[in-house]
C-alpha cells in the first residue's frame, strides 16, 4: 500500500496539486494517529479514528470526482474542529497538542488556494489564539494532566511534528527535483524537435528545389524553341505554377527560421536607387497586367547609399506590393518612400504601400499578421495565398528593429507603412527617382543569348545529373565548352589535367561539399584551377547565403532554380573578357543590373586597404585603388568621420578655441562593414593599420577580420604618411600580381626601414590626449621646447627635444633627422604637416633641400585624426632608408603642385625581378 502511495506521489502524469494533496493529507492522518494516546480520554479515542476514516473517505471521493480543492477545504474544516477539542481534552498548553496546530497551518497553506487559503489561515490563527486564551482564562475547562504526562506528550509531539514536517518537506523537495528534471528533459526534447523540424524544412526545401530546378530549366528550354501557341501557353502556366510553389517553400522556410530564432539580419551597404529599381521592375509589370496604375513617390533627399539588410527590406516591400496588386481590382497601387535624418549618419526611412483595393474589415485587422490566417475567406477564395506573407513581413520588420502599421478602409483600400532606421553610407542625395528614371529590365522579352564564348571552357559540379543537364542546356546557345563532374572528387581529378575559365559548384554534395571542394581546389598541389573564379550553386535555403559564400571566397552565388538569363550573366561575369563576344543586340545596361548579385565575380584578386590616417595624397590613393576606412574625430559637438564629415582646418580652428578634439579608431563593426564591402571588389584584402600600440585600430581590425576568410590585417608599425609608404608599397606589389604572402612578408620587413619622426610645435594636444602631464606641458611652453615623436616597435616614444623659435627648431630637427644621410633612400619624402602656412612650408622645404635633397617631395596635409593628436604647427619628415626590397617612388606620381594632366601621363610600371621591386616610367 505504501509502495503504491509513493508510486502515485512520483507519478508525473498525475497533477502536482493532487500529489501534494495526497502527501499532506497522509501526513495529517499519521499526525492524528499519534495524537490518539494524548489526553487518555474516551472522547479522543472515539473522535480521532472516526476523523481519520472521514478524511480517508474525503480524499478518495474528492480525487475520484476531481474536486480536490473542495476535499481539501472539507479536511481543513475537520481539522479546525478537531484540534480545539483535542486541545482541551488533552491538557491545553501543558499537552502536546499546541505543536499539532503547526500541522494544521501547513495543511491549509499547501492544499488550499487563493482567497480561501488566506481566510482559513486567518481562521486557524484566530482559533489558536482563542484556544490559548480560553485555556488561560478558564482553566476549569481544560483536562488536567500530570507533569509526567505533560512532559511525555510535549516531547513526543515536538519530535513527531518535526519528523512529519521533515518527511513532508523531503517529499516535496523530491517532487520538485523530479519536476525540474522533467521540465529540463522536455525542454531538451522540444529543442530536438525544433532542430528536427528545421532540418526537415531545410532539407525539404533542398529536395523540392532540385526537381523544381529541372522543371523550370527544361520548361525554359521549351519556351525558347519554336513551338505552337498552345504548347507555349501550357509551358508558361507550368512556369507560373513552379514559381508559386517556390514562393511557398521560401515562405515556409523563412517562417521556420524566424520561429527558431535562426533568421539573421545582415546589414550591408547598398545603393538605394538600385533597390528601388529592382522592386519597381518586379511589381510594375504585374500592376500593368492587371490594369492598375502604378505610382511611385521617392523622396529625392534619400541618401544614395544606406546600410541595412537589403535582401529583407526588398522581401518586405515586395510582399506588401504583391498583396496590394493581388487585393486590388481597379485603381492604383502607390509606393512612397520618405526619409528623416536622425543624426549625422543615421536616417529613419518610411516605406508606404497604398492601394485602392478591397481593404480589410476593421474587426479583421488584428488578425491579418497571424501566420496561416487569411481573413475575409469568402471574398478572397479566388485569390491565391497562404496567409503567411504578412506574418513574415511583420516579424522581419521587428527583427530589423522597425515598425509596421496598417490603415485600411473596407472596400476603399489599404495602406501599410513600414519604418526602418538605417545608417548612412553615402549621404549624396538619390535625387529624382521616377518610373522612367529607374534602370529597367527586359522582363517579358523573348530569350536572346547575351554572349557567345566558344573558346571558353567551364566546369559544372553537381551530384544531381539532371541539374547538370539543365545548366548545360541553358548555356548551350552561348557555345561555351562545358565539362561536368558528378562529385567533388571527380572535379578535383579533372582540375588536375584541365584548366577551366570558371567553375559552377553545387554546395550540398555527399562526402565532400561544395565549400570543401572549393578550398581543396585553391590549395590543390599541381592543380590547374587554383585561382579560377568559382560560383556557388545552392538549393539549400533562402537569400541569406550571400554572407556565407562571400566569406568563403566564392566569386558569387546562384540560388536554384536558376533562369537562363541569370546563369548567363553569372558565367559572363567570371569569364576572361577576351574569350567573350557580346551579342550585338544584348542590352548592356540590363546585364549590368543583374551583376548586382554577382558583384563578387568581378573582383580583383587582391586589394590593399588602410585607415584614413595614412595621409597619402588623393591622387596616389586613386591611382593605386587604395581605399581607406575612416577614423573618427570626436569633438564637443559629436563624433565625425575623419576627412568625410570633418576637415582638418575646421578641426584646428575648433581646437584653437580651447575645445576638445581627439581621434578614435573605427569600431569592430565599422571594420566588418568595410571589409565586407571591400570583399565585393576583391577576393583578398590586406588591410594595413596604424602602429598597434598607438591606436586600437589594429586590434579592432584583427577582431573584425576574424569574421572573414580572406582579410589579413598588418600593423604598419607607423602612422601618418610613413604608414602610407607601407600602403603604397603593398599596393604596387598587389597591382603587379605579387602573391599575398610575399606582400605580407615584405610589408613587415619594410617596417624597419621607414623613418617616422614628427616634431611637435606645442605640447598642448599631447597633454590633452594624456600623453604628457600638465606640468611637463607648462615647462615645454615656458622653455620653448619641442618634443620629437618617434615610432619604434609600433610604440610612440619621445626621441629628443628641440629648443627655440620656429626657424631654429626646423634647422636642428632637419639636421638631426638626416644625420645619417648615406642610408637614406632619397627618392621620396613626405613632409606631413598640420596647420602650417605657405611661408613656413617653403622654409621647411628650403632647409630640407639644403641638408638632404630628395627626388620627390610631397607636401601632405595631415588628416584630422592625426592633427588632433599632434596639433597645429607640427610636422614630420617621413621617408625610407635603403633596403634590399628597393622601391622607387621617383616616378610613382608627381607631388600635389604638379599639373594634373602631366600627372595623368605618368603611368607607373612595376618590374619584379628577384625580390626587388622597381617602378619605372611607362
Ligand atoms: P495571403 O495574401 O497569402 O493570404 P498575407 O499574410 O499576405 O496572406 O495576408 C493576410 C490577409 O490579409 C490576406 O488574406 C488578406 O485578407 C489581407 N490583406 C493583406 N494585404 C491586403 C491588402 N493590400 N488589401 C486587402 N487585404 C489585404
Automatic annotation (TrEMBL):
EC class name: transferase
Keyword Ion transport: no
Alphabetized Pfam families for the sequence: DegV, HATPase_c, HisKA, Response_reg
Domain Histidine kinase: 203-424
Catalyzed reactions: ATP + protein L-histidine = ADP + protein N-phospho-L-histidine
UniProt keyword Hydrolase, yes or no: no
Keywords: Kinase, Membrane, Phosphoprotein, Transferase, Transmembrane, Transmembrane helix, Two-component regulatory system
Chain positions found as 4-aspartylphosphate: 506
SUPFAM superfamilies, alphabetized: ATPase domain of HSP90 chaperone/DNA topoisomerase II/histidine kinase (SSF55874), CheY-like (SSF52172), DAK1/DegV-like (SSF82549), Homodimeric domain of signal transducing histidine kinase (SSF47384)
Any one GO molecular-function label of the UniProt entry: phosphorelay sensor kinase activity
Domain Response regulatory, residue spans: 457-575
Transmembrane segments: 20-36, 42-63, 70-90, 119-138, 158-176
EC code: 2.7.13.3
Function as written in the Swiss-Prot or TrEMBL entry: May play the central regulatory role in sporulation. It may be an element of the effector pathway responsible for the activation of sporulation genes in response to nutritional stress. Spo0A may act in concert with spo0H (a sigma factor) to control the expression of some genes that are critical to the sporulation process.
NCBIfam families according to UniProt: DegV
Family: In the N-terminal section; belongs to the phytochrome family.
Protein name: Circadian input-output histidine kinase CikA
Species per Swiss-Prot/TrEMBL record: Sporofaciens musculi
Top-level taxonomy: Bacteria, Bacillati, Bacillota, Clostridia, Lachnospirales
Amino acid at each position: 500500500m505504501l509502495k503504491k502511495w509513493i508510486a502515485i506521489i512520483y507519478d508525473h502524469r498525475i497533477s502536482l496539486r493532487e500529489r501534494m494533496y495526497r502527501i499532506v493529507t497522509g501526513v495529517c492522518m499519521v499526525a492524528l494517529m499519534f495524537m490518539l494516546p494524548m489526553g487518555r480520554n474516551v472522547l479522543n479515542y472515539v473522535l480521532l479514528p472516526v476523523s481519520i476514516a472521514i478524511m480517508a473517505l474525503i480524499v478518495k471521493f474528492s480525487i475520484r470526482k476531481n474536486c480536490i480543492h473542495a476535499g481539501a477545504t472539507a479536511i481543513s474544516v475537520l481539522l479546525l474542529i478537531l484540534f480545539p477539542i483535542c486541545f482541551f481534552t488533552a491538557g491545553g498548553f501543558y499537552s502536546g497538542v499546541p505543536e499539532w496546530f503547526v500541522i494544521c497551518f501547513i495543511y491549509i497553506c499547501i492544499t488550499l488556494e487563493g482567497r480561501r487559503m488566506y481566510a482559513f489561515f486567518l481562521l486557524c490563527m484566530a482559533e489558536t489564539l482563542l484556544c490559548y486564551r480560553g485555556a488561560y482564562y478558564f482553566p476549569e475547562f481544560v483536562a488536567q494532566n500530570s507533569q509526567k504526562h505533560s512532559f511525555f506528550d510535549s516531547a513526543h509531539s515536538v519530535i513527531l511534528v518535526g519528523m512529519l514536517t521533515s518527511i513532508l518537506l523531503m517529499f516535496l523537495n523530491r517532487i520538485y527535483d523530479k519536476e525540474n528534471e522533467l521540465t529540463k528533459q522536455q525542454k531538451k526534447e522540444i529543442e530536438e524537435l525544433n532542430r528536427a523540424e528545421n532540418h526537415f524544412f531545410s532539407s525539404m526545401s533542398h529536395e523540392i528545389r532540385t526537381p523544381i530546378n529541372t522543371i523550370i530549366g527544361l520548361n525554359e528550354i521549351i519556351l525558347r524553341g519554336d513551338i505552337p501557341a498552345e504548347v507555349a501557353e501550357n509551358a508558361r502556366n507550368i512556369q507560373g505554377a513552379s514559381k508559386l510553389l517556390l514562393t511557398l517553400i521560401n515562405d515556409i522556410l523563412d517562417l521556420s527560421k524566424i520561429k527558431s530564432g535562426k533568421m539573421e539580419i545582415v546589414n550591408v551597404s547598398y545603393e538605394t536607387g538600385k533597390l528601388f529599381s529592382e522592386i519597381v521592375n518586379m511589381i510594375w509589370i504585374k500592376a500593368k497586367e492587371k490594369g492598375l496604375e502604378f505610382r511611385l513617390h521617392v523622396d529625392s533627399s534619400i541618401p544614395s547609399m544606406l546600410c541595412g539588410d537589403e535582401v529583407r527590406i526588398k522581401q518586405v516591400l515586395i510582399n506588401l506590393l504583391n498583396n496590394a496588386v493581388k487585393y486590388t481590382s481597379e485603381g492604383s497601387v502607390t509606393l512612397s518612400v520618405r526619409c528623416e535624418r536622425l543624426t549625422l549618419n543615421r536616417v529613419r526611412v518610411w516605406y508606404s504601400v497604398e492601394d485602392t483595393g478591397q481593404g480589410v474589415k476593421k474587426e479583421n485587422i488584428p488578425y491579418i499578421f497571424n501566420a496561416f490566417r487569411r481573413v475575409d475567406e469568402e471574398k478572397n477564395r479566388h485569390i491565391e495565398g497562404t496567409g503567411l506573407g504578412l506574418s513574415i513581413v511583420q516579424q522581419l520588420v521587428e527583427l530589423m528593429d522597425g515598425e509596421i502599421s496598417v490603415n485600411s478602409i473596407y472596400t476603399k483600400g489599404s495602406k501599410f507603412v513600414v519604418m526602418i532606421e538605417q545608417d548612412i553610407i553615402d549621404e549624396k542625395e538619390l535625387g529624382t527617382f521616377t518610373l522612367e528614371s529607374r534602370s529597367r529590365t527586359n522582363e517579358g522579352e523573348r530569350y536572346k543569348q547575351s554572349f557567345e564564348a566558344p573558346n571558353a571552357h567551364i566546369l559544372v559540379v553537381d551530384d544531381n545529373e539532371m541539374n547538370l543537364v539543365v545548366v548545360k542546356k541553358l548555356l548551350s546557345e552561348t557555345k561555351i565548352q562545358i565539362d561536368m563532374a558528378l562529385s567533388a572528387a571527380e572535379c578535383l581529378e579533372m582540375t588536375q589535367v584541365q584548366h577551366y575559365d570558371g567553375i559552377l559548384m553545387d554546395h550540398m554534395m555527399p562526402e565532400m561539399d561544395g565549400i570543401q571542394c572549393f578550398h581543396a581546389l585553391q590549395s590543390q598541389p599541381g592543380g590547374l584551377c587554383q585561382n579560377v573564379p568559382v560560383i556557388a550553386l545552392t538549393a539549400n535555403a533562402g537569400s541569406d547565403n550571400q554572407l556565407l559564400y562571400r566569406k568563403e571566397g566564392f566569386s558569387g552565388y546562384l540560388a536554384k532554380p536558376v533562369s537562363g538569363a541569370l546563369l548567363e550573366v553569372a558565367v559572363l561575369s567570371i569569364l576572361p573578357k577576351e574569350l567573350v563576344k557580346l551579342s550585338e543586340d544584348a542590352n548592356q545596361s540590363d546585364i549590368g543590373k543583374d551583376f548586382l548579385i554577382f558583384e563578387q565575380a568581378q573582383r580583383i584578386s587582391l586589394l590593399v586597404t588602410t585607415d584614413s590616417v595614412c595621409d597619402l595624397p588623393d591622387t596616389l590613393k586613386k591611382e593605386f585603388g587604395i581605399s581607406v576606412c575612416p577614423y573618427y574625430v570626436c569633438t564637443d559637438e559629436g563624433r565625425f568621420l575623419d576627412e568625410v564629415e570633418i576637415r582638418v582646418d575646421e578641426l584646428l580652428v575648433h581646437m584653437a578655441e580651447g575645445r576638445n578634439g581627439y581621434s578614435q579608431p573605427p569600431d569592430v563593426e565599422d571594420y566588418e562593414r568595410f571589409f565586407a564591402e571591400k570583399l565585393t571588389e576583391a577576393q583578398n584584402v590586406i588591410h594595413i593599420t596604424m602602429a598597434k600600440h598607438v591606436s586600437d585600430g589594429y586590434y579592432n581590425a584583427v577582431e573584425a577580420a576574424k569574421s572573414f576568410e580572406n582579410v589579413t590585417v598588418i600593423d604598419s608599425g607607423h602612422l601618418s604618411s610613413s604608414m602610407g609608404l607601407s600602403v603604397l608599397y603593398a599596393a604596387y606589389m598587389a597591382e603587379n600580381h605579387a602573391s599575398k604572402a610575399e606582400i605580407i612578408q615584405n610589408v613587415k620587413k619594410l617596417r624597419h626601414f621607414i623613418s617616422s619622426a614628427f616634431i611637435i610645435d606645442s605640447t598642448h594636444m599631447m597633454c590633452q590626449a594624456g600623453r604628457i602631464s600638465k606640468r611637463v606641458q607648462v615647462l615645454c611652453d615656458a622653455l620653448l621646447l619641442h618634443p620629437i615623436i618617434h615610432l619604434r616597435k609600433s610604440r610612440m616614444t619621445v626621441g629628443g627635444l628641440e629648443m627655440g623659435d620656429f626657424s631654429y627648431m626646423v634647422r636642428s630637427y632637419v639636421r638631426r633627422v638626416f644625420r645619417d644621410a648615406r642610408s637614406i633612400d632619397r627618392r621620396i619624402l613626405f613632409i606631413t604637416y598640420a596647420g602650417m602656412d605657405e611661408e613656413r612650408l617653403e622654409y621647411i622645404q628650403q632647409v630640407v633641400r639644403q641638408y638632404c635633397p630628395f627626388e620627390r617631395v610631397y607636401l601632405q596635409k595631415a588628416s584630422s585624426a592625426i592633427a588632433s593628436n599632434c596639433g597645429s604647427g607640427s610636422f614630420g619628415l617621413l621617408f625610407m632608408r635603403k633596403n634590399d626590397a628597393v622601391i622607387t617612388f621617383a616616378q610613382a606620381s608627381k607631388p600635389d603642385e604638379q599639373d594634373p594632366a602631366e600627372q595623368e601621363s605618368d603611368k607607373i610600371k612595376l618590374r619584379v625581378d628577384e625580390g626587388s621591386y622597381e617602378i619605372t616610367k611607362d
